[in-house]
Amino acid sequence: MKKVMFALVWGILAGTGFAGAASSAPTADKIAHKADHMAFYQGMDAKGKIELVITDKQGRTRQRVFNMLRKDSDESKSDQKFFCFFQTPADVRKMVFMVHKHAEREKDDDRWLYMPGLDLVKRIAAGDKRTSFVGSDFLYEDISGRSPAEDIHELIKTTDRWYILKNIPKKPGDVEFAYYIAYIDTKTFLPMKMEFFKKGDRCYRIIESVKLIPVQTEENGTRVIYPTIAVSVARDLESGSTTKMTRSNMQYNVGLGDQIFTERYLRRPPRDAMR
Amino acid sequence: MIAFKCNVHAPEAREEHVPGLFPSVEVHGFFEVRAGCRTQNDPREKDTSMMEARLQAEFFFYTDRAEFKFKADMWTDGITERLEYDTREAWIFLRPAGFMDIKAGRQVLTWGTGDLFFLNDLFPKDWQSYFIGRDREYLKAPSDAVKISIFTELVSIDVVYTPQLDPDRYITGEFISYWNAPLGTFAGRDAKGASHKPDRWLQDDEIGVRVYKNINNYELALYGYRGFWKSPGGHTPSGIAEFPALNVYGASVRGRVGPGIGNIELAWYRSVDDKRGSNPLINNSEMRYLAGYMQDLGKDFSASFQYYVEHMLKYREYKKTLSCGPSRDRLRHVITVQLTKLLMNQNLELHISSYYSPSDKDAYLRPNIRYKYTDKITLEAGGNLFFGEKSHTFFGQFENNTNAYTSIRYSF
After folding, report:
1. DSSP states of A113-157 as a string?
2. B12 close to A (CB below 8 A)
3. CB-based contact (8 Å) between B293 and chain A?
4. Would the N or C end of chain A have less CB density within 10 A of its end CB?
5. Burial (0-12, 13-18, 19+ Cβ within 10 Å), A67
6. Residue A79, domain member (yes or no)
């Protein structure tokens, strides 16, 4: 009986011990999902202005500015809708780029482009998500989010500051990298740095979050603060090009309606997007 | 190591529009020089196909209730040898109710699924600008119209009313020489075609309707139009171009097909002034069909393919009453392939549109290269190449107009 009791107590202790370890150091998958949530899914919707300054190896700069609206789908939390209203440069001014993002891996996103000069609503074929977003060093997937389900996550180190994850693509043929290392802030769970490697452990691309800001909002009637990446920098080590992305006027849970992400507003953007 | 700190400060103040007497006006535009020349001699036209210095300016502002836009072009034209002016847009936009939008005034209008094919889009086109190599924006000519849009749970409806016919800016011979069928000869600057344009206000009007719905991102639409052939669809016995009455009924669907986007569109062109098809002076009724598919083939590389058919409906009557000149085929087939490749951080765009008609045995190629030197300066070069065996087919008639052009644009 004593032996049984001892075994039981030991078992409970061991069990709680395991649980304790799990809560202080979550699994790699949990970290990856939480980081994805923090970077791309905070709030039910969001709006803000995004400025991209692209500086090439020779120091020449180009600027892209657009207002972005985002809304999460009511049915499936991981589907999202995006509405980008371009302000500069001149050749894309007042163009609208709209995306219905589908989180399911097999389902391509739906994309539209509105060209005001021709009053033309163009449907765009879902392309390679690893292509440059508006000519910057950020890729399409860096803006809309890369689903954690696409990679195998491995927690390689935990420090006071960071969970360091190694992410290996499940389908290496679909991407240009062999793996990437993500430094996830232990407090905010925001990805603070991502280093992309090609075969032979050659780092060729780095994205860093250089400034975070707290954005106040309301969630179910209570005041909350969403830590938000205000400035991030993407560096292409192969081309020598750098892009600085600055978000301003960030607001969450503004109550954007689903109707905004339709042809009506594509042709005449809402004031929320124009301001 | 970079220190990451969370700066705690109040969220940035919300940018609010302050309603008042002086809303801020956005001013933009560009200055452009564009020149082109024929690559072969055309005795009916100048060797220069285009020579212009153009200023476009636009003004936009909004109040709490409305939006206003004015956009106009002014350019010196080396072909007409005049200073030209064109108001491209001058409209007011209102959202009077949650379910309704109204846009009234001069505006550019587009609907339908074709890429450079317009079946149910009967809004005016500017073929002259397109064939000499002006910016693609100029393919669409403006309409003086009121557009009312109604949005319901079931469907959305657009109604466009144009109180006075806005015809295409069609080929008149001034910039591009063409085959003048009634005269059985080529026509150019020396013989600019005369026309009778219906122009009675509120009587020679046009109305276009589109009813559409998006189901799982498959875009379905029905169309109706009552008006006129937009480019001359007939002529008087003495050869003066006319715009006979035309009704069009059609439908389209567009959506995801495999890894790309597919579209199908069809339209019934009912030539109301010649329902029986026995009047050789007026265009016959037609069915028009279009099927298209576009897909990304690689990084920043997209391709589209379209198949288009015009089917003359009263062909026997047409053949029977045709008095002179070569006859058209019952079916006209056109295949288009378009390829676009972006290079150098998407600052260099290589594009080609190609049209080929196996029934007319003619073709049209539009290569274009565009380089964004800076955010403000864009350089462009391209060509319009026409090929054909016969002088009366759609692209074949323009063979002598094959041209190359280049431009530089500064935007502000």
Report:
1. EEETTTTEEEEE----TTSBSTTSSSBHHHHH---GGGEEEEEEE
2. yes
3. no
4. N
5. buried
6. yes
Residues of A in Cβ contact (< 8 Å) with B259: 108, 125-126
CB of B1 within 8 Å of a chain A CB? The answer is no
Pick the closest to residue A93 from B260, B56, B341 (CA basis).
B56
Contact B409, B372 (CB under 8 A): no
Residue A243 belongs to a domain with what CATH number? 2.50.20.10
Give residue limits of the domains in chain B.
Answer: 26-411
For B254, the closest of A119, A123, A131 (CB atoms) is: A123
Residue A134 tokens read as: 């508006």
Using alpha carbons, select from B276, B254, B238 the residue that is nearest to residue B115: B254
Pick from A108, A251, A264: CB nearest B256: A108
8 Å CB contact of B137 and A118: yes
- What residue in A sits closest to B295 (Cα-Cα)? A125
In a domain, A10, yes or no: no
Contact B411, A91 (CB under 8 A): yes
Chain B: give the shortest CA distance to residue A89, in Å.
Answer: 6
A220 within some domain: yes
Structure tokens at A127: 């392309």
Partner-chain residue, chosen from B28, B261, B411, that has the shortest CB–CB distance to A125: B261
| Domain range enclosing A77 | 27-274
* B106 vs B313: CA distance, rounded Å: 35
Which three-class secondary structure state does DSSP give residue A81?
Answer: strand
Nearest to B307 by CA among B296, B322, B294: B294
CB A138 within 8 A of CB A129: no
Q: Write the ipTM.
A: 0.91
Chain B contacts of A121, Cβ < 8 Å? 110-111
Q: What number of other Cβ atoms are within 10 A of residue A159's Cβ?
A: 9
Q: H or E element: which one contains A263?
A: helix A263-267
| DSSP per residue, B29-77 | EEEEEEEEEESS--TTS-SEEEEEEEEEEEEEEE-SSEEEEEEEEEEEE
Under CATH, what is the fold of the domain B26-411? Porin (2.40.160)
Closest to B317 in 3D by CA, of B285, B359, B272, B270: B285
Instruction: Using an 8 Å CB-CB cutoff, list chain B residues near A215.
Output: 11
The structure's pTM equals: 0.90
The total number of structural domains in chain A stands at 1
The nearest alpha carbon in chain B to A62 belongs to B375
For residue B102, which amino acid is it? I
How far is the C-alpha of B157 from the C-alpha of B211, rounded, in Å?
A: 5
A125 closest CB neighbour out of B16, B217, B296: B296
Q: In whole angstroms, what is the distance from residue A123 CA to residue A134 CA? A: 17
Interface of B with A in 27-46 (CB under 8 A): 28, 30
Of the candidates B2, B109, B111, the beta carbon closest to that of A208 is on: B2
In order along its 412 residues, chain B shows pLDDT tens digits of 333 334 434 333 344 444 445 668 999 999 999 999 999 999 999 999 999 999 999 999 999 889 999 999 999 999 999 999 999 999 999 999 999 999 999 999 999 999 889 999 999 999 999 999 999 999 999 999 999 999 999 999 999 999 999 999 999 999 999 998 888 889 998 877 788 999 999 999 999 999 999 999 999 999 999 999 999 999 888 889 999 999 999 999 999 999 999 999 999 999 999 999 989 899 999 999 999 999 999 999 999 999 999 999 999 999 888 877 778 899 999 999 999 999 999 999 999 999 999 999 999 999 999 999 999 999 999 999 999 999 999 999 999 999 999 999 999 9
